[in-house]
Amino acid sequence: MNETDRLYAFVFRGELAKEALAKTGFVRGEQSAFLEAETANDLSISYLDQALLTSAKRMAAVYAAVATFENSARRLVQTVLLDAKKDNWWDECVSKNIRDRAESRQNEEKKIKWHTQRGQDLINYTELRDLSNVIQNSNNWPFFEPHVRSAEWVRSIFDVIERSRNVIMHSGTLEREDIQRIGINIRDWIKQVGA
Questions:
Q1: How far apart are CA 124 and CA 78, in angstroms?
Q2: pLDDT digit string, tens, across residues 94-122
Q3: What is the pTM of this model?
Q4: Of 144, 97, 106, nearest to 124 (Cα)?
Q5: What is the DSSP string of 61-111?
Q6: What are the φ and ψ backbone dihedral angles of 26, each rounded to 5 degrees?
Q7: What does residue 27 show for φ and ψ, rounded to 5 degrees?
Q8: By CB neighbour count within 10 A (0-12 exposed, 13-18 middle, 19+ buried), where does 175 fall?
Q9: SS3 for 27?
């Protein structure tokens, strides 16, 4: 392959990548909202299979929505219980089982000092299922009832979103109806609880 052919192949790959980005809805003007050039270079994106990358980018948008939802649910739990129980809310309102699991996860992460951790607060080490259990706890329920009205509704929404979250977190690809289901549940949650 001569220099002209190599240049043509390079430009063609770039155009294919740009077209793939446009199809995912991540392109915003000159720059991709999904991936800045520096980050793409750091991650060696140009070496990856473009079809797999396009699918992953689509799931990245879903992940962003799910991660935002999950963190807003954590914030709701923390805010409501902090308001009700003050600084002792974690010990008073969260079961020993959930506290132990969160502490174990945090301690495991602390052993790997060279890597970023989830955060300082133990609530960052909980799962949606844990948050649902905290909300539904009979001692905590009176604090949450004005916000969510039904414990079963909370569990239902968290179960649906957690199921889809687990698919994404293990590099799976959701079908469109699964993505729409997430969107409906997030929209219902926000209309009831707020952002």
A1: 10
A2: 999 999 999 999 999 999 999 999 888 99
A3: 0.77
A4: 106
A5: HHHHHHHHHHHHHHHHHHHHHHHHHGGGHHHHHS-HHHHHHHHHHHHHHHH
A6: -95, -10
A7: -80, 130
A8: exposed
A9: strand
